[in-house]
Amino acid sequence: QEQVAVTSDRVNSESPSWDPAGAFLYFLSDRNLESLVGAPWGRRQPEPFFDRDMELYAVALRPGVRSAFRADDELMERATEQAGGKAAGAEVKPVTIELEGLARRLERVPVPAGNYGNLTVNGDALFMTSRESGPDASAHLVAVKITNRNPKAEPVIEGIRSYEMSQDGRKLLVRKGSDLYVIDAKPAKANLTDARVDLRGWTFPIDVRNDWRQIFIDAWRLERDYFYDPGMHGVDWNAQLAKYLPLVDRITTRDELSDLIGWYVGELSALHTSVRGGDLRTGDDDIRVASLGARLVRDPAAGGYRIEYVYQSDPDYPDEMSPLADPTLGVRTGDVITAVNGTAVLAAADIGELLRNQEGRQVLLSLRSGSTARDVVVVPTANEFGLRYADWEYTRRLATEDAGGGRIGYVHLRAMGSDDITAWYRNFYPVFDRQGLIVDVRHNGGGNIDAFVLEKLIRRAWMYWKGRVGEPTWNLHYAFRGHMVVLVDQRTASDGEAFAEGFRRLGLGVVIGMRTWGGEIWLGSQNRLTDGGLARAPMTGVYGDDGTWLIEQIGVVPDIEVDNLPYATFNGGDAQLDTAIQYLLDRIREDPRAVPPPPPHPNRRFEYPAGRN
Fold first, then answer.
1. Structure confidence by residue, pLDDT tens digits, 105-140
2. What are the backbone dihedrals phi and psi of residue 14, each rounded to the nearest 5 degrees, phi first?
3. Whole-angstrom Cα distance, residue 197 to residue 190?
């Protein structure tokens, strides 16, 4: 066998599909690199974004093959071999491929670029998914008829999840919502009225014991095949199967199966090996207890629950405020809640009883402020954890602003995902010109945006702009010129650890806090089990340029070790943050890094020689 490159490695190409006539190989490639952002000027330094970058391409398998997408011309020989003229299901003949000059026979199918994927071809058309722009965008099934008469991507079915073409090219199986449909593979709007596959009568008797045994073995096999070290960290993997497999016959629930899988996966002594999910058969009787967004203390002497503290949040984002923080309510610390929807709160074992299933609903609270009684209407939330976390973040920021005298910025990242990109843009750009910066990744849950954040922090200013009015700005845009530290603790995990270690290795500053979790073998979630469960296999080890494996089983050891002791923390202290602030104040005092003032403007007046006007 011979391997021949069809496309250049300078571009990304995917989804190859042979046309049934055996004349062309079609594929998708991201070559429409027209950025929606044309320059780095603007709020928060916008960067290039390439939307609708996929284009359709075809490679003729032999010289002299004329694409059916080409326009007719007066020299065109009608007998010339053309692609696309073979009907679906027609007799298959041997295909000859002329390798010489193959890559030079590339041509673009003349349809506009889009967010295309999953290309398939039959004798009538090219089928593919077309995704809209933006997060959580819908995908549609579209078809491009093989013709030179105004070819374009025409809708077939809107809002699909996936599709497949039958082997003979006659039918398409489409997944839309939770339903399956079988339609003719034709480049026209599909009628789904009678196309749904009725699965209501499908039942599959399963021997649960044998099913669990197979899942157990599959998890063992996938761990063996996906784990980054083929030597399995020196563990005899076959022996682990022999050791634990007999225990499958003793388990009674899917949760116990996950526990058992976790036992032998744990023999690898690697983090990122969580086992979860599967056919757990959970009930639908979950009762959510809503929250008023405050710390409440039962106070029988006062006749109800005293409001001890209302959770704070960033006032720039009022939609995220605590229910009781709504300024129109006039609720204050010390007010007493005496009744919820007319029921006295002391009549219940806990006020939570009266807030069950009240999330997002209007609730009538009876309040007493001193000798004054009144009623207010609030809308509770079920996200008390989020409110408490936001309060912690916001109060850390206020403490930094206060103790640092406005010279130190503060950014906290809960994790390293898409929501945390938002947090980064919210909180870094308002303070990029401070003399100090704290990036707090304590209890960071990980993700994959460390490179994105580090790239922003390694920028260096090398020139300055100054107009007639206003303060100087600089290039590179939004480069941080001051001193920086990173805060970590025992719950900083995964990509949060990668960020902290990268911050230090790139010479950006010191790391303060406690040694981190220690999980740095990266992975995906491809190794799904048959019931949807997962036994994650760490797939990509991380090592440094010194030839040592990084972080895994060790964690990031801070440059300055400071622990937040429980009692002091309970009383509102934050020794780690205090240390970071003091460290930066000391560095600022030693090296303030003021913005260089502009030089005197040049005098370019021309002096005429004496005696001349």
1. 999 999 999 999 999 999 999 999 999 998 889 999
2. -155, 175
3. 15
At which residue do the structure tokens 């009930």 appear? 283
Three-state SS for 358?
coil
Task: In whole angstroms, give the CA distance from residue 433 to residue 595.
Answer: 9
For residue 291, the 8-state DSSP code is B
CB atoms under 10 Å from CB of 12, counted, come to 12
The per-residue pLDDT for range 438-486, each reduced to its tens digit, is 999 999 999 999 999 999 999 999 999 999 999 999 999 999 999 999 9
CA 57 to chain centre: 30
| Residue in this structure with the two tokens 């670029």, named with its chain if needed | 113
pTM of the prediction? Answer: 0.89
CA 555 vs CA 376, 543, 562: distances in Å: 50, 13, 15
Which amino acid does the sequence have at 236? D
CA dist list (Å): 259 to 227, 269, 423, 474, 525: 19, 16, 36, 56, 18
Q: Report yes or no: 518 and 542 within 8 Å, Cβ to Cβ.
A: no
Enumerate the β-bridge partners of residue 408. Answer: 436
Distance CA 136, CA 125 (A): 28
Q: CB neighbours of 569 closer than 8 A, spacing ≥ 6?
A: 575
Q: Whose structure tokens read 């196309």?
A: 195
| Burial of residue 203 (number of CB atoms within 10 Å: 0-12, 13-18, 19+) | exposed
Query: Under a CB-based contact definition with an 8 Å cutoff, are residues 594 and 483 in contact?
Result: no
What is the distance between the alpha carbons of residues 27 and 18, in angstroms, rounded to a whole number? 9
Question: ∠ CA 528-529-534 to the nearest 5 degrees?
Answer: 60
